[in-house]
Amino acid sequence: MVFDPALSMMRKATRMEEIDAAVNKFEPVTPDHEFYVNFENLRGNFQERRVMRILNAIPKNGKYHFDYQPNRYNKTLLFLAGMRGSGKTSELAKYCQLLDSPDCFFVVTCNVDTDLDLNNMQYMDILIFQLEKLLEKAQDRGLELDQSIIDSLEIWFQERVKEINRSLKTEGSAELEIGNDDSFSVAGLLGKLIGVTGKLKAGLSGSYERAEAIRTNIKNRFPDFAVKFNTFIEQTNQQLRKEGKGQEVLFIVDGLEKTMTAETRRKIILDESNRIKEIKANTIFTLPIELMKERVSLENFSEVVPFPFVKIVERDGTVVQKAIERFEEFVCKRVAKSLFDSVDTIHLAIHFSGGSPRQLLRIIEQATWELDDDAQQITKEAIERAIDQMGTSTARYLVPAEFELLKTIKADFEAGQSIGFSGDIQKLLEEGVLFEYNDGTDKRANPVLERSKLYQYRVLGQV
Predict the structure, then answer these.
(1) DSSP 223-235
(2) 454, containing H or E segment
(3) Segments of the chain with pLDDT less than 70
(4) What is the pLDDT of residue 1?
(5) Where are the alpha helices (DSSP H) in 244-375?
(6) Which of 258, 234, 287 is nearest to 92 (CA)?
(7) How many CB atoms lie within 10 A of CB 262?
(8) What is the pLDDT of residue 172?
(9) How far, in Å, CA of 275 to CA of 290, rounded?
(10) Who's near 330: CB < 8 A, 6+ residues apart?
(11) What is the pTM assigned to this prediction?
(12) Virtual CA dihedral for 319, 325, 329, 332, nearest 10 degrees?
């Protein structure tokens, strides 16, 4: 995974004033970080081994192997779908660690939320970014790619730049400059091509006119670009095997759910599905929660794997002790146990997290806001007040019809019924009002919502 300076600064809190930084809920951790906790086998029907099997990665002697011969024409496109804050990014970081090896994949991680414009993004942007990241990693690993394929791809991009600039000039807009700019000059065989893709990516984050000119040009020539891209991937795969640096390229594209609008995410995944299908490279995308309803369409050309929250309590009310223990480890790796007034206080926060790592961090963070300035520990009362505040906030903008739906869901849940799908249910999932477990038919109200007076009155009938 890409080095993140913010992540490197995160350290376990041993003093009260260090807690806020330690429970940063927006910085997912990688398996090599001291905060990392493995929640394997605690997500109901979700199993890591299924993902590995879809990727055709087979465990041998404690490591994963990929046999390219039977999979020469079988490239995997997989969408990992889950609610915000479920831990998808950390899960993907684990896959990178497990799969990036000479006997398996040459894993190229593309974090679109940190490198592309979240306000204005299209599939073309992501594809150029994927290529740039592959080139950078190939150069970093000293991969000796054939000069002819590099030259062919570079010439193709240079021709596109000329056409883009003619279009921009006609419109009176500033042209792209692809030259020896020090900010994009990179030494070595791949340097010039990295410079071209880097400038194109920068152009996509610039003015609207420039970004549209780049996208339109490549879209209009997409069949040709797809051939160039796929040829480059295949040549890279061959060289990886020749040099013993991997069997095939695997892209991990993360961060799509952080784009600013649902319409943007829909356009990237669904409206561009025909172009996505033309790219012949093993790829894992994270799938924004609102697109799970399109699963049937997506499964016409890909695999979709739901990634649920960790279940804390079974349907019959039984506490999942292993989940409690794993979340206690999750908390105590970040915040010293001595900074809580008791283990029961930690368990209270875990229970109301609903199995969402992000919500658990948020509860602890907000509990510190409820304390006096000279407090030396997080108390049970502070956790209670934080939960009440979060519950009130979650309930505040729900309309009567949504409370009626929550009442129906609660009744079905208590009767042991599977809970299906509707547009209204989808909206509540997207807003974090409902949480989803196992195969998606186990849906429940967010535990903090249940603490709100509005929920207790509208759903439970309590005055």
Answers:
(1) HHHHHHHHHHHHH
(2) helix 453-458
(3) 1-8, 172-175, 177-189
(4) 45
(5) 262-266, 273-278, 295-298, 321-334, 343-353, 357-369
(6) 287
(7) 14
(8) 66
(9) 21
(10) 35, 37, 357, 360
(11) 0.89
(12) 70
Please state whether beta strands 442-445 and 434-437 pair in parallel, antiparallel, or not at all (unpaired): antiparallel
CA distance 117 to 401: 36
> What pLDDT is stored for residue 178 in this prediction?
58
Helices (H) and strands (E) in the chain, counts: 21, 9
Q: What is the chain's percent helix, strand, coil content, to nearest 5?
A: 55, 10, 35
Q: Using the CB atoms, write b or e for 407-422: b if 16+ within 10 Å.
A: bebbeebeeeeebeee
Q: What's the CA gap between 67 and 215, in Å, rounded?
A: 36
Of 394, 384, 374, the C-alpha closest to 449 is: 394
Whole-Å CA distances, 140 to 17, 104, 237:
39, 18, 16
Contact status, residue 132 vs residue 194, Cβ threshold 8 Å: yes
Which token pair is 79? 């969408």
Task: For residues 332 and 330, give the distance between their C-alpha atoms in angstroms, rounded to a whole number.
Answer: 6
Using the structure block, give the residue that is written with the tokens 């249940």. Answer: 450
Cα–Cα nearest to 52, from 1, 88, 93, 98: 98
> 147-171 and 222-243 helices cross at what angle (nearest 10)?
150
Give, in order, the Cα–Cα distances in Å from 338 to each of 165, 276, 333, 342, 346.
62, 51, 12, 8, 11
Neighbours of 374 (CB within 10 A): 6
Q: What is the widest separation between alpha-carbon atoms in the chain?
A: 76
CA-to-CA dists, residue 52 to 65, 77, 95, 259, angstroms = 10, 12, 9, 27
Rounded CA gap, 339 and 332, in Å? 10
Rg (CA), the chain: 24
- AA identity, residue 182: D
Task: Tell me the C-alpha to C-alpha distance, in Å, between residue 173 and each of 7, 200, 202, 385.
Answer: 39, 15, 16, 55
Per the listing, tokens 């509990």 go with 367
Closest CA to 174 of 211, 125, 199, 210: 210
Bridge partners (DSSP) listed for residue 108: 251
> Distances in Å between the alpha carbon of 48 and those of 98, 284, 325?
11, 14, 20
Q: Which of 385, 386, 407, 384 is nearest to 454 (CA)?
A: 407
The angle at the Cα of 188, spanning 182 to 189, to the nearest 5 degrees, equals: 120
End-to-end C-alpha distance for the chain, whole angstroms = 51
H or E element that contains 165: helix 147-171
User: How many other β-carbons are positioned within 10 Å of the β-carbon of residue 323?
Assistant: 19
Strand partners, 427: none
